[in-house]
Structure formats: C-alpha cells, structure tokens
Amino acid sequence: MAEQKKKKSLIAKSQSYFGDYLFMLLALCVPAVYYCGRRAVFVLLVSIGAAVFCDLTGGLLFYNKILLRDLCAVFTGTAVALMMPPTVPYYIPALASAFAIFAVKIPFGGSMKTPVVPAAAGFAFVSVCFPGEVFSFPVSGTSATGQFVSGTSLAGMLQKSSSMHLDPISVSDILTGSVSGPMGTACAVVLLGCAVFLLLRRPRAFISTMGFILACSVMALMFPRVNTGALASLILEICSGSLLFAAVFFVTDPATCPRKPVYALIYGVYSGVLCMVTRYYGIYEESVCFAVITANCSWPVIQSLFDRISVNGKNREKEVR
C-alpha cells in the first residue's frame, strides 16, 4: 500500500514538472513553425511519435505497465526536435528520441530516476553519429518556403572566432530567432519568457538556471571569442545554440537537479562552466548537451564531498563545544 502511494506520488510529481515544461515548449514551437514552416511540424511529430512509441513499448516489455502518464516521453520528443535543424532527415530525431527512452529512461525505471537528462543524451548520441546533418542549418526564412539555403549558425561563427559586429537590426534578429540555428532554441525572447515562467512556477529549479546563465555570462565576458567587445561576446554566447534552452529545461531536470538551494546554485554554476569549456575546446559547434551529461554524471561525487565537509565541520564544532 505504501509502495503504491509512493509510485502515485512520483507520477503526480513528474506530471506536474513535465506539464509545466511542455507548456513552455509549446511557446517555443510557435517561432519554430513560423520560421521553418511545415517541416518543423513534421520533425516534431516524428520525434514525439518515436519517443511515445518507445516509452509505451519499453514500459510494457520491461515493467508490464504504461509509463506514458509521467509525460516525460512527450517532453523528450519535443525537446529533441526543437534542438534540430529543420532540414534534418526524419530518422535522426527518431533515433535520438529512441535512444533517450530506451538507453536512459527505461533501464532506470522512470523519469524521476534517470542519471542523466534523456533528451540531452539523445541529442548527444546523434551529434556524434550524424554531426553533418545535426549541425547543418539553413538561412533563416528559407526553410519555411521549402527552398533550403545553407547558412552558418551563431554557434558556428563563434567556434570559428569570427569578428561579428552588433547593430540594432542584428540584435533584433538574434533576440527574435531570425538567424540560422536550431529551429526551436534560437528565439531568445521566448526563452527568457520561459525563464520568467520557471521562476514563478519553480523558484527552486530556477536557482540552477540562474547559476548556469551567470557562470556562462562571466566566462563570456572574461574569455570572449570575438574581438568586437565584451557586450557582443555576451549576447552572442548566451543567445547562440541551445544554451538558454538547456538552462531552462535541462539544468532544472527534476531527476538530476539538487534539491537544496545552495547545491542547486553550485550545480548550475558548475554546469555553466562545463558548458563554456566544452564550447571553447569541443569539436562540435554546440556542445551544451555534453556539458549537461558530464555535470549529471560527476555531480553526485561533488555533492558527496560537500556533504563530508559539512559533516566534518559540524563534528568539529561539537568537539570544540
């Protein structure tokens, strides 16, 4: 009886978290469809469909129950699709979603027990397997008409240390997502709105987001990859690729984000530093998912060290008294 109540509580908690996240992802789908047209709709449907199918199949095969109620599969499929270019072959987001569910979620018993963020793992998997397709972005606006013209994303320009100047028009394009890049993570205005929503709905989770963005911002100012000024470096780093997207949706994952506010802040800062380091030295133009996975895997060890230090400190205080 107690076990059943615990399982129901976990499902309800998962539904609450991912329900909020899906609401925010829905807002990001609007600019994705606006800039990328029906191609964005098809990529979303394929990715979500693959995630839901794998979740349904895996739950029945391994646990003899339906796991779809936690909404994790729908969230994972949507998140994976929004990180993709609109020109990506349909089998790639399907493979990413399948890997996220079968390799990360199902083996560990559900969305609240995963050691790493499933969507981040799925995207990292296809990034390694199909980098040419995953990081091939069309010029903004051309995909909506079906005439795909190859372009260069902001993250790609930063990787090449291009000297980019900011003016009112380019800043407007960057903030509204009218640039080459992933179809659902380029609109900084909507992502900032999602961050505000997260602050109101999940203030504890937002602590990690704040730490992540703060760490990335400081490193962008201290170690710019462009020679056109600190402000240009800050705007381009924060608004390029999937950095803000990961800050809102991945760093705050309920299964991997620490519950204590102090630990949540440290975890966010730690993840942000890893994000910038992998951007500076990584081989891919967008490596935030690799940073998130690394933080997920290494944080338990770091937290245990903090716990030991805290316990030893308390014991010393008792001895002194």
Keywords:
321 residues; Ammonium transporter fold; 69% helix; globular
3D structure, described in words:
The structure is a single chain. The chain is mostly helical. It has a single domain (9-310), classed as Ammonium transporter fold (Orthogonal Bundle), CATH 1.10.3430. It has 14 helices and no strands. It has helices at 2-36, 38-63, 72-82, 91-105, 118-129, 131-134, 154-159, 168-176, 188-201, 203-222, 230-239, 243-249, 261-281, 288-320. The relative contact order is 0.11. The model has no long low-confidence stretch (mean pLDDT 87).
CATH first level = Mainly Alpha
Total strands: the figure is 0
CATH topology: Ammonium transporter fold
Query: Main β-sheet: number of strands, strand sense, barrel status?
Result: none
Q: Helicity, in percent?
A: 55-70%
How would you describe the shape? globular
* Helical segment count: 14
Q: Provide the CATH architecture.
A: Orthogonal Bundle
The topology string of helices and strands comes to HHHHHHHHHHHHHH
Please tell me the overall pLDDT: 87
Distance N terminus to C terminus? 45 Å
Beta-strand percentage range: under 5%
Q: How many independent structural domains? A: 1
Unreliable stretches, pLDDT < 50, 5 or more residues?
none
CA-based gyration radius:
20 Å
Helix/strand-derived category reads mainly alpha
